[in-house]
């Protein structure tokens, strides 16, 4: 799993090298990353089939015992993958919040980043929608739900910032009718919840389509309707 670069908008899974020869040359930390890369790649298969440790080991060209030297269980593998997704997403959210002063544009950019992250990482999208976690330990689904709650809180904070600037926007509108202020009844919590529901819905549609429907399709126009 490659680290996020400062200006990246999404992480792209690198095709893992397979075979026991390559696996033997990897250091312990690299082997863990290689296992997670391979797991994520296997989740990209259009058919939703439960991934077993036997199938994962065969894909890697190692024994199941070799997998368990790095992860005590398949649940731990998924937990590590969720942790990587979480760190990647919130690293990018923090970058966006730092670079963009406008709250509405912050929320819009975060939404587009999440949709593009999904498009570039179809296997990880199956984790974000919890489809890959069916039949796995319930703590994994809880972990994803907690991550999404954090995303919603971040979006809410962006829109609260936008609301704080509403008076300035109103003054600007008085001098420049082309400037569109936020509605008087603008509710950051409601908008953030709607925005997250839209994003998650796009993820689900992407997965159900066998990764054929781009999650960012028509997103620019739709986000304007949601956010203003």
Automatic annotation (TrEMBL):
Lineage top rank: taxon = Bacteria
Concerning Pfam families, the annotation shows: SlmA-like_C (PF22276), TetR_N (PF00440)
Kindly state which keywords UniProt assigns to this record, in alphabetical order: Coiled coil, DNA-binding
Per the record, DNA-binding region residues lie at: 52-71
Keyword DNA-binding carried by entry? yes
Positions of transmembrane segments: none
- Region annotation (Disordered) ranges: 1-25
The HTH tetR-type domain extends over 29-89
Residues annotated as coiled-coil are 130-157
Q: What segments bear the compositional bias annotation Basic and acidic residues?
A: 1-10
Per the record's keyword annotation, is Ribonucleoprotein included, yes or no?
Answer: no
GO molecular function list: DNA binding
Query: PANTHER family this protein is in?
Result: ACREF/ENVCD OPERON REPRESSOR-RELATED, ACREF_ENVCD OPERON REPRESSOR-RELATED
Per its record, how is this protein called by name? Transcriptional regulator, TetR family
Q: Which organism is it from?
A: Paraburkholderia phenazinium
């Amino acid at each position: 799993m490659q680290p996020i670069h400062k200006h990246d908008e999404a992480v792209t899974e690198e095709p893992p090298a397979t075979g026991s020869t390559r696996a033997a040359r990897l250091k312990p930390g690299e082997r863990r990353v290689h296992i997670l890369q391979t797991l994520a790649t296997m989740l990209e298969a259009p058919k939703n089939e439960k991934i077993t440790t036997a199938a994962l080991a065969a894909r890697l060209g190692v024994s199941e015992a070799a997998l368990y030297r790095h992860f005590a269980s398949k649940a731990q593998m998924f937990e590590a993958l969720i942790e990587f997704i979480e760190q990647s997403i919130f690293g990018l959210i923090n970058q966006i919040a730092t670079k963009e002063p406008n709250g509405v544009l912050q929320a819009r950019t975060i939404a587009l980043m999440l949709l593009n992250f999904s498009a570039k990482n179809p296997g990880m999208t199956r984790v974000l929608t919890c489809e890959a976690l069916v039949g796995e330990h319930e703590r994994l689904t809880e972990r994803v739900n907690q991550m999404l709650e954090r995303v919603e809180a971040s979006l809410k904070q962006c829109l609260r910032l936008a609301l704080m600037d509403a008076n300035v926007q109103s003054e600007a509108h008085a001098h420049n009718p082309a400037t569109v202020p936020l509605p008087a009844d603008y509710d950051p919590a409601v908008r953030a919840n709607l925005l997250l529901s839209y994003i998650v819905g796009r993820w689900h549609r992407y997965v159900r389509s066998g990764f054929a429907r781009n999650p960012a399709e028509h997103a620019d126009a739709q986000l304007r309707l949601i956010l203003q």
